[in-house]
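Ticket #465: bound-state structure for BES.
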Amino acid sequence: MSNFLTYVQEHQNRFLEELFSLIRIPSISADSTYIPEMQKAATAVQEALTKAGCTHTELCPTEGFPIVYGEKIIDATLPTVLVYGHYDVQPPDPLDLWDNDPFDPVVKKTALHPDGAIFARGACDDKGQMFMHIKALEVMEQNGGLPCNIKFMIEGEEEVGSDNLEHFVRANTEKLANDVILISDTGMLANDLPSITTGLRGMSYVEVEVTGPNRDLHSGLYGGAVANPINILTQMIASLHDENNHITIPGFYDKVAELSTSEREEMGKIPFSLDAYKKALDIAAVYGEKGYTTNERKSIRPSLDVNGIWGGYTGEGAKTVIASKAYAKISMRLVPDQRSEEITTLFTKHFTALAPEGVKVKITPHHGGEAYVMHADGMEFQAASKAYMETFGIAPLPVRDGGSIPIVALFEETLDSKTILMGFGLDSDAIHSPNEHFGVFNFLKGIETIPHFYHHFTGLFQANR
Ligand code: BES
Ligand code: MN
Ligand code: MN
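RESOLUTION: The complex was predicted; output attached.
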């Protein structure tokens, strides 16, 4: 087993080059201009799987982008690990805020990544992290072989809500049968503080449209006499939080699972520097729900944020106009046991009722998904813990994350297996933002750590049957 590190060191340059080739394919799922690139990326992942050691691979067509499937089954009596990841990436814009071409990776040192970080869209979310698993397969194959069976399911629609994956999973429970699902699409605390993600938030995403007069109006001739959709929309949005930053939608908190005092105390022990946090974001103060710490606000508490807002004149100079319509995209991050559909309904009712008579409101729900929590005592957690101990020399901390991977809750429901989230990115890696990056150390450490997980999981699985 100790050969893993040596092998990774000997092949690290090639591993990086292979990742760069994958990153160079701009697989932006949200933008239809990139449909051919999505196909290319899927094929590249399939080829990489074959090269690493999968004995069977296929591109499974969906109504959207293909799902890449790969497997190597060595012995039906051994456990099966199903690796999930995504080859699609977020759009890179705004492009002018990037220091390099987002699809031409550059390695640069940063304060948190003294060994260098790969700057590119998808470097961390999720091509870099997903590719660690393909290379981990190679590492195992070249150093004694797989200790158990392995399956890969790499999708191309994670960043747009995984609608077709849900259908695929429900229709292929036999093919996807497994003993644990392994995902690297989250983060860890710091390069010397490994952690395992034990919670993800759910999501409700809506688009709202407020319509006032039937056409854009001269703001002098009509200003003050009709409801201005932009004024109204911003007032409505502002009223969604009260003075304590609680969300005002009636019923919104009804099902929120509250943490016990001791659970909150445990959470409070997670190393966190508020000063470093503020400094990294260049903000004078944090902001959020009264009565909760920053760590709690971004993980165990629900939140509501406007993701985009538009309408009226935004071009150069001044145009005196009252727009006929105003729009916003709003996301709500949910916690156990809130249900995404129910929250969307509560939002819709409340937001519609908020509107004064002079405007019409239309609400379009987008994707949703449920929150996920796992207990830090299962076999999969223990196996991962042992793996980090071997490669980092310390035990990982269980940490609840604020992001969402909506498909995780569905996996548990449909495949009846647990998920282990071994993320190697840092919160500061700027995923979804300009200058996204992923530490070279993190990439290589991931490739080295993952094979240990397979060994320990197989060992524990056999001991427990
Ligand atoms: N990998 C992220 C989710 C993530 C990142 C979770 C870091 C925890 C820590 C994933 O690709 C993502 O961006 N998910 C979306 C969900 C979605 C439905 C578009 C999100 O969280 O906004
Ligand atoms: Mn991701
Ligand atoms: Mn993402």
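RESOLUTION NOTES: The CA atoms of residues 55 and 288 lie 50 Å apart.
TICKET STATUS: resolved
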